[in-house]
Design brief:
Elements (H helix, E strand, L loop, with lengths): L2 E2 L6 H7 L3 E8 L4 H5 L11 E6 L6 E4 L6 E5 L2 E6 L5 E6 L3 E7 L9 E7 L13 E9 L4 E4 L2 E3 L6 E6 L1 E8 L6 E7 L4 E6 L4 E9 L5 E4 L2 E5 L2 E2 L3 E2 L2 E7 L6 E6 L5 E2 L2 E3 L11 E11 L2 E12 L2 E9 L8 E3 L16 E20 L4 E18 L3 E3 L2 E3 L4 E4 L5 E13 L2 E10 L3 E11 L1
Parallel strand pairs: 3-9, 10-16, 17-24, 17-25, 29-34
Antiparallel strand pairs: 1-16, 2-9, 3-6, 4-7, 5-6, 7-8, 10-13, 11-12, 11-14, 14-15, 17-20, 17-21, 18-19, 18-22, 22-23, 26-27, 26-37, 27-28, 28-30, 30-31, 31-34, 31-35, 32-33, 35-36, 36-37
């Protein structure tokens, strides 16, 4: 506890402004007024002690400790106060002279005994010399509403302070407050006044409880509903607590926390909805290139799905056109002619037409890899031009007439398989495509995820 040397606007300053001081306090052994001449009894029927206050000021007011003042009489040059046995202190007040607050009697007050208190009220004539066996003691408790005990007696607190004029020497003090650790010690009053601050350590803490992604969830502490999130508690004893959060359409959450002295716990609960959230639709879009030694195709793949399962459609074509007035096999033999009489088609004079429409399934294996498989309709047409005229079944076909290579012009089922690699929002694909198992091409592509 730090010892304060000065205090602005404290009772010590007020005491210095007061003109009331105790010049002396003594026991009058031979005075029998309290026992014989003018005895009075307190509310318990016990003979009171008498304090003869020597002063010419008759309009003084007095405040005693909890035992009270049994009677008061104004006498010539004195004020008589009858107090119960065991009285500890008294405050003296006057509108003009000020206040002498909490003067502790330097002697134990016994029943039927007379004591003399000589007051110094600032009179110029016969001004007594204040003896130096008393000293001012001021104690500031924190919290300000704490209970203060001096020499095991509870004393009053005014404006957050206790102040008293007390006999020099050692005095015990004790400061207590609910939910705080008590503090006690010994203070020694000597030639200088003592002003002391006592700050109690808390035996409580606070809780601030939050819930995400929503608030207004019910908060239960030790099975008692205390409010809704966001929740801030009042003072709570330091111990272990069970906390439960509940909200309609969300799974409840439970935890156990230990609250320490002076601590503010801020647990945050992430609630999970009991309603299965709708997974947003993801789109895969790719442009693709197909390669075969005899042709190159261009196409696109568009996939839609949620989580790991996708459906896709695809299209590819070389955007060419080809047809044949005649047909031949892959050896160049035109239908309807003898093998030996078939002319060769014109060198470098050929036409290609390629197209596929497919649909299928994409499966996401992990965050980076997808596999796909699909089927649909596809065609490939390969045609040549005649190098010279030819007559078939009596009909003459001029040079330049197109002849379809039926062995290399499959039409029917298109099947494809492949894989897709994902890098953030970007896609790279590679695969294999066939039409009726007669035409084959490898494919590759790039794309984006939306």
């Amino acid at each position: 506890m730090a010892m304060l040397v000065t205090m602005v606007c404290c009772p010590a300053a007020l005491a210095q402004q007061s003109k009331i001081a105790v010049a002396s306090f003594s026991r009058m052994e031979t005075d029998i007024t309290a026992r014989v001449t003018a005895p009075k009894k307190d509310q318990n029927g016990e003979i009171c002690a008498l304090i003869r206050i020597v002063t010419n000021v008759k309009d003084l007011m007095f405040e005693s400790d909890a035992l009270g003042i049994t009677a008061r009489e104004n006498r010539t040059g004195e004020i008589w106060l009858y107090v119960p046995r065991g009285a500890r202190r008294i405050s003296i007040l006057h509108e003009e002279l000020g206040i002498l607050r909490n003067y502790f009697y330097p002697e134990i007050i016994e029943k039927g005994t007379v004591y003399e208190m000589v007051l110094n009220t600032g009179d110029r004539e016969d001004k007594p010399v204040v003896e130096n066996n008393m000293q001012l003691f001021v104690l500031r408790p924190e919290p300000a509403n704490a209970n203060v005990y001096i020499d095991d007696e509870q004393v009053p607190i005014e404006n957050g302070l206790f102040s008293a004029t007390m006999p020099k020497g050692e005095h015990t003090y004790r400061v207590e407050a609910p939910m705080y650790q008590a503090d006690a010690g010994v203070v020694t009053l000597a030639d200088e006044q003592v002003i002391k601050s006592v700050t109690l350590k808390p035996k409580f803490g606070y809780m601030e409880i939050f819930s995400l992604p929503v608030q207004n969830a019910d908060v239960y502490i030790d099975s008692v509903k205390v409010g809704t999130t966001p929740f801030r508690s009042d003072r709570m004893a330091i111990k272990e607590y069970s906390i439960r959060i509940e909200k309609e359409t969300y799974f409840p959450k439970d935890t156990v926390v230990t609250l320490g002295a002076g601590e503010t716990l801020r647990p945050t609960f992430v609630l999970e909805s009991t309603i299965k959230p709708k997974v947003p639709l993801t789109t895969l879009a790719l442009v693709q290139l197909g390669y075969n030694p005899n042709s190159t195709t261009y196409g696109a793949m568009l996939g839609f799905g949620r989580k790991k399962n996708y459906f896709y459609v695809g299209f590819r074509s070389d955007f060419g056109s080809a047809s044949g007035d005649l047909e031949c096999n892959e050896s160049g033999i035109i239908s309807g002619t003898d093998a030996g009489s078939a002319p060769f088609y014109a060198e470098g004079k050929k036409e290609n037409a390629r197209m596929s429409i497919t649909a299928g399934y994409i499966r996401q294996l992990n965050s980076k890899l997808y596999l796909y498989a699909g089927a649909g309709y596809g065609s490939r047409t390969l045609a040549y031009e005649l190098a010279a005229p030819v007559t078939i079944d009596g009909k003459e076909y001029e040079a330049g007439t197109t002849v379809k290579d039926t062995d290399n012009s499959p039409t029917g089922a298109a099947i494809e398989v492949g894989g897709i690699l994902r890098f953030g929002k970007f896609l790279i694909s590679a695969g294999y495509h066939t039409v009726n198992g007669a035409y084959h091409e490898v494919t590759g592509g790039i794309g984006l995820v939306f």
